[in-house]
Amino acid sequence: MNPHTVKTYGEELDQLSAEVILMGGLAEAQVADAVEAVARRDVALAQSVIQRDQRLDELEKDIERKAIRLIALRQPMASDLRKTVSAMKIATSLERTGDLAKNIAKRSLVISESEPMSGLTRSIERMGKLVSSRLRDVLDAYKGSKLDIAQAVWSSDTEVDEHYNAMFRELLTYMMGDPRTISACTHVLFMAKNLERIGDHATNMAEHIHYEVTGEDYMNERPKLTTMEP
Amino acid sequence: MNPHTVKTYGEELDQLSAEVILMGGLAEAQVADAVEAVARRDVALAQSVIQRDQRLDELEKDIERKAIRLIALRQPMASDLRKTVSAMKIATSLERTGDLAKNIAKRSLVISESEPMSGLTRSIERMGKLVSSRLRDVLDAYKGSKLDIAQAVWSSDTEVDEHYNAMFRELLTYMMGDPRTISACTHVLFMAKNLERIGDHATNMAEHIHYEVTGEDYMNERPKLTTMEP
Q1: What integer is the mean pLDDT of A148-169?
Q2: For residue B67, is it within any domain?
Q3: N or C: which end of chain A has fewer CB within 10 A?
Q4: Set of chain B residues whose Cβ sits within 8 Å of the Cβ of A176
Q5: What does the DSSP assignment read for chain B?
Q6: Domains contained in chain A, number
């Protein structure tokens, strides 16, 4: 006997959003902790990020199961259906965000075994703070159905790309200057790429919120930085 | 008036699978062409891959819309519901596969401007052929609900990882040997990473097929290569 069957329709919808918000808080913490593990060469913190990722996987499966059940049994229409679908889609973005944070944590373990590269890890820290603030904003937008915040996150996507491109150039210089650092630098390069992709997920979530609130399928063409670093 | 409303339930389910199979064929071609564009330094082919990606995005949206509509209006149960959900999930994996192929095509344009690195691009070609065959197999498994093929794709995931790790080592050697190639090599590194991720999507699709056919949520713990290259 499934306890949810005694819930009302509205309660089920609210529970779905609440679970997405919970998941969002955890994903945000995973990103912040992964970046801190890099900055502080904190092996224990990195390992806890890696271990905690599973919780996000479970939450995503649970949200998806509940959303599909709700669609099948309650046949939500219009804004309720959009709310249910965007919960599913945002949960998917948050699960991917967690995977990327986990990967950053894993790489932090690898580079913690080589010489510190303070300049580079400080850049990762700066980029991490920027991406974390995007995540925080988009989750606020989701909580309060705030279109203006979602729009702001969506428009600021290029800022993350600029950080990434700057890091890419910084890494090339570093590697060319001291080829012995190339192996460690490739890990930093992937960390930066992961942060950029987390920024993309924040932008995608902003689009889902826009769709949920307005019913318009997509925002205008996303602002993308033209760059030699595809 | 939506033409689907006059379709029968069975017809709608079949149409959903047919659209996923169509999408799969296109995604497979995108990967093969992207890799060929790298190997042949074929700018025109790379540009056509980039331009064709949009079709995959449209197909994913269409499959998702139809699947959600089917869940809401037909309330499929048991195996029909699994079939509908896995169509949605496989479409998502195929859309991501297309994005990764598009990114490989974009990077091929960048490296086509620098000195040929035949050894490296041959390795990309080999890895691309392996990943393409995984995609082909998993799509065959989907078409025929063939559990054994899905299982084989799922178990062979480590083979792609081994290729990636070998390429990673090859790239490090190349970069250290001639630091002027570092910039171009980072693009090849991301190409290899993209192919590895396409391989992961093939594995995910195999899991969705397993779920669709058996109703068991997941296969046993996925075989993952332990590696210094997370």
Answers
A1: 92
A2: yes
A3: N
A4: 179-180, 182
A5: --GGGGS-HHHHHHHHHHHHHHHHHHHHHHHHHHHHHHHHT-HHHHHHHHHHHHHHHHHHHHHHHHHHHHHHHH---HHHHHHHHHHHHHHHHHHHHHHHHHHHHHHHHHHTTS---HHHHHHHHHHHHHHHHHHHHHHHHHHHT-HHHHHHHHHTHHHHHHHHHHHHHHHHHHHHH-GGGHHHHHHHHHHHHHHHHHHHHHHHHHHHHHHHHH--S--SS------S--
A6: 1
Q: Please give, rounded to a whole number of angstroms, the shortest distance from the CA of A4 to a CA of chain B.
A: 17
Q: In which domain, by residue range, is B200 found?
A: 3-214
Q: ipTM score here?
A: 0.89
Work out the number of other CB atoms within 10 angstroms of the CB of residue A79. Answer: 13
CB contact under 8 A, B168 and A186: yes
pLDDT tens string A23-36:
999 999 999 999 99
The answer to whether position B229 is within a domain reads no
pLDDT (mean) for A196-212: 95
**Chain B residues touching A63 at Cβ < 8 A:** none
Is pLDDT at A179 greater than 80 in this prediction?
yes
Q: Which residues contact B25 (CB under 8 A, 6 or more apart)?
A: B139
Q: Which two tokens stand for residue A87?
A: 């919960």
Q: What is the mean pLDDT of residues A197-218?
A: 90
CB burial of residue A120 (10 Å; 0-12, 13-18, 19+): buried
Host H or E run for residue A224 = none
Q: Please answer whether residues B151 and B209 qualify as being in contact, where contact means their C-beta atoms are separated by less than 8 angstroms.
A: no
pLDDT tens by residue, B139-175: 999 999 999 999 999 988 889 999 999 999 999 999 9
DSSP structure class, residue A178: -
Average pLDDT over residues A92-109: 97
Residues of chain B predicted below pLDDT 70: 1-6, 217-230
In a domain, A225, yes or no: no
Spell B19-39 as b/e; 16+ CB within 10 A means b: bbeebbebbbbbbbbbbbbbb
Q: What is the pTM of this model?
A: 0.91
CATH, residue B52: 1.20.58.220
pLDDT at residue B5, as a whole number: 53
Please report residues of B whose CB lies closer than 8 A to that of A92. Answer: 92
Residue B227 included in any domain: no
